[in-house]
Amino acid sequence: MPEPTDDGVVASALRDVLRTAAATRPPEPPADLRARSGRRARRVPDLKLVLTVAAAVIVVAVLVTAGVVHRSAKEPVHVSGSGRHSFSIRPVLCYAAPYAPSSAAPTPGGLPTSGVLPACSPSSALTAANIGISPDADGVGGYTSNLGSIVPDGALAAYPSTPVAQVTAGATVLLPGEPGAGGGRFVLGPAGITGADVASATVVRQSGQVSIDLHLTPAGATRWDDLARRQFHAIVGVVVDGRVVSAPVTQPTQSSFTSFDGSLQISGSLTAAQAGRLASWIPGSR
């Protein structure tokens, strides 16, 4: 026999209450009513009836409350968390010219059918050799470079930015940059680290600037050092949800690479609210 539903139990309890109330005090005979000469009598409540109804109301209230809790427990819980966002740090290969659709684009509004972007031209490639970093205490930021003379790759103008759904860890992607990263568009290689490599992210304030301190897992620390060593005096891009939020040069004030020891800092034109959201999204994101 199927188990009765909560609504069925409540209905049955109510029917029992009504039957009990009717049986507890029978209706007054008509002759007795006539004997009162038409005056309205003040009826004294039957104690047994009051207690029966009160007990039944309590039982019904408990059943209804238990039913609501039971049904709520069965409903799916929608949790928003870091897993809904994507985070990665990738090598920046070159800047791309602004999107300008033309017949050169293989599919209208989409990437090539092969899913592979063309290689950056040699003159636009953001290699350490082309960038030409030179630590210089008198230079802006403590170094000088050729970055100002490297122009975006014009051949990439026909290619739109990579859709967020296609920004996977192993893909080479073309992404827009936030103002804090200099704007424009970036071609980035496969991810060196993702949110799975981040143990914690903390918002910090230094000299009026808001930034995020990342502490990596042991495996993440190794992967980050590998990427940073390859990109020494070149650029890495911090990507969140398909957009480049920061694009720093790696250790430009140093003459040789040194380990980050599992820690790094993300800075840029971040407000405290933006930094707080990013810090909550990053650890564990894909």
The count of domains is 2
Number of strands: 11
Strand content: 15-25%
**What top-tier CATH class of the largest domain fits best?**
Alpha Beta
Record keyword descriptors for this entry:
three-stranded antiparallel beta sheet, globular, alpha+beta, about 290 residues, disordered N terminus, 2 domains, Gyrase A, domain 2
Could you explain the architecture of this structure?
The chain is of the alpha+beta class and 286 residues long. It folds into two domains: 6-74, no CATH class; 82-281, Gyrase A, domain 2 (2-Layer Sandwich). It is built from six helices and eleven strands. The strands form three sheets. Strands 1, 4, 5, 6, 9 and 10 form a six-stranded antiparallel beta sheet that branches. A hairpin with a 7-residue loop joins strand 2 (134-135) and strand 3. Helix 1 runs antiparallel to helix 3. The longest helix has 28 residues, at 47-74. It is globular and about 45 Å long. Residues 1-45 and 47-83 have low confidence and may be disordered.
Question: Which SSEs are present, and which pair or pack?
Answer:
Elements: H1 6-24, H2 30-34, H3 47-74, E1 87-96, H4 128-131, E2 134-135, E3 143-144, E4 173-176, E5 185-188, E6 193-194, E7 198-206, E8 209-216, H5 218-230, E9 236-240, E10 243-246, E11 263-267, H6 272-281
Antiparallel strand pairs: 1-5, 1-6, 1-9, 2-3, 4-5, 7-8, 8-11, 9-10
